[in-house]
């Protein structure tokens, strides 16, 4: 705010320009809050198609739906960009069962982690050993041999930026299985990465290290984790695990792209969107149906208001963010190959929640210019332009020097729903979703007008 | 922010003080985010007691529950303050039915407005005439005679501060019946005051003018309002209305009060809380179970952290905000009578949603002091201290010069739930609720330490 005020005092013409910009931005928000189809579009994606893990029938349906949607809005060009994606399938529902403990047998709310191998129909039965994090496994060494390692590291509830707390806690999910396998563990169970205390397990991707024996990985709900931990304080606990998941051959899928061609610099691009794939539970409403529908809406707002951009603005639905990032990588590769110069890319992948700002990654002078627009967003509740960041799918574009921007919604509610059966349409608020779309459209308007 | 920085430069000792304050405030938020029972307390109020309109069994149960809860936290003094309240009962479910239109008969989602008289078992059948607002009724004059006036003024979706949009739209609900009755209307139907487009009607209080014939008043859902309006464009429409509500004799109820006595100035008070009554649909989760539970939690946080206040800090559950404000008036009257000097009062009555700041009402120099604390709240997402306001229940305290403060949550989601069957526990987020309680506790800490 201070920076803007100082600039305005010394160069009053900029103040006039900003005032005309504020009129256009007001029109963008008014249109989004009054006439936007974004909420109904998300309802369709969630309720008629549902979840859409890469390679699944749902993902294929979502490709067709979003292509048709952008065609129905009469975007100048709508096309599919082929990309081979991993195809992981969960199979029959998992079993996580305490078979022997001081309190007797007990079912625990559990779910296989994405990319994990299955136990097969015979399952795995073993004693459980609890650890607080990855370091403890190395300390225990041979003591974990033949056992199921239970990673019970919590997500810190006192950290206000919940994505930071998530980042601290997620390592055990991503890498815990291979770490435990090095010392002979039979399987791993992870405490769900959430600050909520409930009985819904959270899935998410894990990775196997090369040359390390692969063992199955599960998550259990935070309530189940507390129960298991309590029992382990009283006595030895044996658990039976069963999962039928497997990674199959890669399959053909698509990034879905729709654009309005630029009137002056059509070979300069500004991309906006989210990832079309989701986990195979719930409806992927916040993660990331919201970001996809907001990306399309950001472009539709230009058409609805008859704003003709100088550059080409593009809505992109990237495929396979959750368990491979193939779509984001292929998009950047093709952009490089065909010399599509992306001056900026904006991703919305933190839920369809109340926007409070934008993150950004780029050279200092561009970040400074970007932040100077902050005051224009203040009337709409966006005040935080201070954090670095962008989005997983647009990350690969940094190789060609693209300025990366992430829509930043308030993060307090996000990890209630993240990667669970609870990530459904009903948890998204219409106005919050609309405000996110309008914010991205307004940012594109400024980037298109002034460059970066 | 700038003001604070300037002060800090000229008086470095203040900067040190603020730094020690920031440590205490961090402890308050950490405790609320880690160990708070506020969410479980709200669950009990909503799920075990439910709605609690003044005079009802639910209201009586809520009085007992909140008294026992504060006793269980070992507050120094917990007591009930008697107050006579209106006792309005809805009776058998209302009927709002199109009986004659081009599209045939049709039920509309409707609900009687609070304080309205009923139609009685014979109901009212009449032609409907639509108006956009109160002014149009006077313009139509005799044309409304014998008809049902349908107020279809919408709540403006483009206004970011939704309480302002509500304020603009609510006049037709509060005063529309008497205005229409002056010209001989038989009854009124109001478009629900919400920006949502759905099939849930919103109740809320209405008032009859003295010496004007009383006619029944209903609200219908926004979808029903659109349907009715569409039909009226095509042909004459007749509607049948039936309601069984009535205002009974005043009954005895209570404000519920619990406090920690001040160690240095026990005769100076800082009050915090919300209103315990709710409408008789839903669970009054956001309106205002959240504010009540946050008020108790704000005081509990002092005990949990062993912070001994200089002044007496008091959690207050005011009774009868919704349809009379008797509790707030009686509280201020007793405070005046017994010379309880309230230096400040904080109300949370805008939902258990993400706190973004505080409103305030008082003399300029106090407002300035209050705003100078803003930077201490910035790490917790509170950035807006600019708006006037307080809360309905604490308003009467302004007569004794009390500085009035309102917790200000983001308002985008509030009017989805307000005064409906959808205002239930599940729509409240644990972290947002906790942050509101912590914010009020931190503000009380500063007021207690530095005065106002």
Entry summary:
2 copies of one chain form a homodimer. By secondary structure, chain A is α/β, with parallel strands linked by helices.
Structure description:
2 copies of one chain form a homodimer. Chain A has 2 domains: 2-88 and 249-450, 3-Layer(aba) Sandwich (Aminopeptidase), CATH 3.40.630.10; 94-244, Glucose Oxidase, domain 1, CATH 3.50.30. The first copy, chain A, is elongated. Chain A is an alpha/beta fold and 452 residues long. Mean pLDDT of chain A is 95; it is low at 1-14. In chain A, strand 11, helix 9 and strand 12 (311-318) form a beta-alpha-beta unit. Chain A is built from 14 helices and 15 strands. In chain A, helix 1 (2-10) crosses helix 2, helix 2 packs antiparallel against helix 14 and helix 3 packs antiparallel against helix 9. The longest helix of chain A is centred in the N-terminal third of the chain and has 24 residues, at 12-35. The two termini of chain A are 20 Å apart. In chain A, the strands form 2 sheets. In chain A, strands 3-2-9-5-6-7-8-4 form an 8-stranded mixed β-sheet, sandwiched between helices. In chain A, strands 1-10-12-11-13-15-14 form a 7-stranded mixed β-sheet, with helices on both faces. Chain A binds chain B through residues 1-2, 29-30, 33-34, 157-158, 160, 195-196, 354, 356, 379-381, 383, 410, 412-413, 416, 429-432, 435, and chain B through 1-2, 29-30, 33-34, 157-158, 160, 195-196, 354, 356, 379-381, 383, 410, 412-413, 416, 429-432, 435.
């Amino acid at each position: 705010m201070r920076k803007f005020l100082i600039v305005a005092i010394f160069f009053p013409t900029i103040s006039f320009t900003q005032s005309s910009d504020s009129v256009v931005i007001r029109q963008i928000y008014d249109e989004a809050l009054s006439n936007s189809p974004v909420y109904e579009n998300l309802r369709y994606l969630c309720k008629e198609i549902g979840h859409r893990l890469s390679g699944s029938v749902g993902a294929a349906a979502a490709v067709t739906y979003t292509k048709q949607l952008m065609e129905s809005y009469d975007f100048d060009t709508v096309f599919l960009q082929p990309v081979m994606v991993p195809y992981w399938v969960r199979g029959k529902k998992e079993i996580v069962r305490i078979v022997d403990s001081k309190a007797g047998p007990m079912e625990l709310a559990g779910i296989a982690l994405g990319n994990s191998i299955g136990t097969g129909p015979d399952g795995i039965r073993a004693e459980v050993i609890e650890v607080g994090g990855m370091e403890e496994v190395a300390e225990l060494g041979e003591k974990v041999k033949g056992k199921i390692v239970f990673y019970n590291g919590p997500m810190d509830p006192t950290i206000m930026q919940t994505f930071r707390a998530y980042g601290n806690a997620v390592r055990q999910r991503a890498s815990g299985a291979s770490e435990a396998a090095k010392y002979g563990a039979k399987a791993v169970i992870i405490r769900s990465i959430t600050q909520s205390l409930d009985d819904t397990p959270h899935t998410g991707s894990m990775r196997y290290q090369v040359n390390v024996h692969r063992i199955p990985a599960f998550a259990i709900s935070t309530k189940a984790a507390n129960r298991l931990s309590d029992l382990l304080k009283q006595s030895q606990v044996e658990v039976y695990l069963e999962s039928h998941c497997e990674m199959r051959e890669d399959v053909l899928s698509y990034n879905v792209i729709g654009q309005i061609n630029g009137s002056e610099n059509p070979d300069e691009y500004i991309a906006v969107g989210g990832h079309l794939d989701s986990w195979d539970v719930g409806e992927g409403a916040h993660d990331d149906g919201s970001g996809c529908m907001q990306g399309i809406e950001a472009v539709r707002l230009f058409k609805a208001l008859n704003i003709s951009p100088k550059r080409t603005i593009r809505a992109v639905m990237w495929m396979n963010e959750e368990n491979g990032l193939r779509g984001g990588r292929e998009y950047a590769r093709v952009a490089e190959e065909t010399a599509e110069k992306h001056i900026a890319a904006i991703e919305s992948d933190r839920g369809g929640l109340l926007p409070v700002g934008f993150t950004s990654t780029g050279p200092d002078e561009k970040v400074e210019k970007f932040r100077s627009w902050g005051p224009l967003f203040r009337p709409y509740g966006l005040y935080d332009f201070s954090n670095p960041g962008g989005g997983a799918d647009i990350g690969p574009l940094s190789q060609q020097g693209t300025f990366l921007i992430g829509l930043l919604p308030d993060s307090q509610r996000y990890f209630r729903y993240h990667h669970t059966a609870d990530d459904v349409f009903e948890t998204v608020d219409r106005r919050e979703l609309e405000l996110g779309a309008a914010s991205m459209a307004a940012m594109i308007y400024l980037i298109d007008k002034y460059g970066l």
